[in-house]
Specification:
The chain has 96 residues and is mostly helical. The chain is built from two helices and two strands; from the N terminus they run ααββ.
C-alpha cells in the first residue's frame, strides 16, 4: 500500500513536470519536434495511472524476495526468537 502511495506521489510530480514542459518549454522553443499539448497531457495521465501500479508491483516483488531470503537463512541458522515479558508491579512475569 505504501508503494502505491509513493507511486501516486511520483506520478503527480511527473504530471506537474510534464505539464510545465508542455506549456513553458514547448511554446518557447518553437521546434517542430517539441512535445505537443496532447502528448504532454498523455504523459501526465499515464504517469498518474502507471506509477502507482508499477511501484506497488515492485514493492511486492522486493518483499517477496526479502521474505524468501529470510526463510532460506532462517532454515539454516534457526531464525530469530523473541521473548516478551510483561511487568506487573515492577516485577517481571513471564508470559507463556
Amino acid at each position: 500500500m505504501i508503494y502505491a502511495a509513493l507511486g501516486l506521489l511520483a506520478g503527480a510530480v511527473l504530471t506537474v513536470v510534464a505539464l510545465l514542459e508542455m506549456t513553458v518549454l514547448g511554446t518557447r522553443t518553437g521546434f517542430p519536434n517539441s512535445v505537443s499539448p496532447l502528448g504532454g497531457g498523455l504523459i501526465a495521465i499515464a504517469a498518474i495511472l502507471v506509477f502507482p501500479i508499477f511501484y506497488g508491483l515492485v514493492g511486492f516483488l522486493i518483499a517477496l524476495i526479502g521474505a524468501w531470503i529470510y526463510n532460506v537463512a532462517a532454515s539454516k541458522v534457526g531464525g530469530i526468537e523473541i521473548e516478551v515479558r510483561q511487568r506487573a508491579n515492577d516485577q517481571e512475569v513471564s508470559i507463556p
